[in-house]
From TrEMBL:
Top EC class of this enzyme: hydrolase
Binding site for substrate: 68, 70, 214, 217, 254, 352, 379
One Gene Ontology biological process: cellulose catabolic process
Keyword annotations from UniProtKB, A to Z: Carbohydrate metabolism, Cellulose degradation, Glycosidase, Hydrolase, Polysaccharide degradation, Signal
Gene: cbhA
MF GO annotations: hydrolase activity, hydrolyzing O-glycosyl compounds
Family, as annotated: Belongs to the glycosyl hydrolase family 6.
InterPro entries (alphabetical): Beta_cellobiohydrolase, Beta_cellobiohydrolase_sf
Taxonomy of the source species: Bacteria, Pseudomonadati, Pseudomonadota, Gammaproteobacteria, Lysobacterales
Protein name: Glucanase
Amino acid sequence: MIASLLGAGLLTAAAAQAQERAGNPFVGASSYLNPDYTKDVNFSISKVSDPALKQKMKIVAGYPTFVWLDSINAIYGGARNAGLLGLTAHLNNALAQQKPNTPITVGLVIYDIPGRDCHALASNGELPLTQAGLTRYKQQYIDVIAGILANPKYKNIRIVNVIEPDSLPNLVTNLSTPRCAQAQSTGIYEEGIKYAVDKLHAIPNTYNYLDIAHSGWLGWNNNMTAAISLYTQVFQSTAAGLASVDGFVTNTANVTPLTEPNLPNPDLTVGGQPIKSSRFYQWNPNFDESHYAEALYNGFVAAGWRNSIGFIIDTSRNGWGGHNRPTSASGNDIDTYVNSGRSDRRDHRGNWCNQSATGIGMPPTAAPGGHLHAYAFVKQPGVSDGSSKFIKNNQGKGFDRMCDPTYTTPDGVLSGALPNAPISGAWFHDQFVMLVNNAYPAIGSAASISESEQAQK
């Protein structure tokens, strides 16, 4: 399938009938350019002097990114949310950006589940893991969002919702963490997410995509099987059953590569051992997000999900370019071979916070092939994952040692985090400079820019 970059907005009969539900909401539509993100990028442009770097940053400013509704205040925006736009303002801006007779897609991240981020500390939310917290989540967060989205004024906007990153994946693998065990035993995660999906699915122009972690988390066969079983069980009991879900999102805010071109076959043997048994992959057969998404698609369809489900891959920070990007793999033992060839330069696939050497990945693209609905910038490249040390704040965000560059993890490696990072959700200029410089494909190259992409700017 020939990929069409988001924002191409080619006029077709299907696109003109914006009220009709699309099989893939990104096809035939332009995508929303978030003014808050443009403002952050412009700040970084003002801080650098290299003309070539400035030009690359200007290109990135023209990429669509998702809007994170990570608190009740984020719905309203303004002074109580660091001066950022609220949901209504974003939707009104989308209407202003919309081209005649062409749908526009707005991406939202629904991210305020009670007891959020149960296995980490950097992105803890405002709502406690209690029934009172769940009630607030339903009434003051989801109901308010749904009420805004249901306004007929916005009926021609295709609204893509990414539902509660990390929540259900934590119930698959992290029940040894007390807060995650509590999230499961109380049923709060499942009830909250089902409520969100039901309320949002009832709005005809919304599309629900469930976060499903990344290949370095759920890529092992046993983890994937458990995840498919859990998701099937949970969403069969929603009002519309499995039809309430349009697809899944992998790699949300993570850096796992789209492909590992030098390591295409996990069963390749080197020194008599399959390379998937290397120290880096630890018998996980899914080295990258493309293979992971395909394996998930097959597993979900086999479990009774619709053939039409699609996948979004977050490519905002998984480019791994720059001078150190390998072009081949070599060596007589599996670890040497894998380490020489992998584009993922982390010391461990579990390292997640503000990772060094990362770069912007493939630009937002509709229908890039297979069962993929889009490559998208779900995470806004340049936004921090968490602070390098504790920073007092009024957002309930703690300090996670995985964001400390001096921290040695339980796996015996350094965290790989960048120094001098602000709290999660804040702009991190130094990281943005790195991401632009290490982009793959390089920003401004033929692979990252097209006439249709330029037309959106």
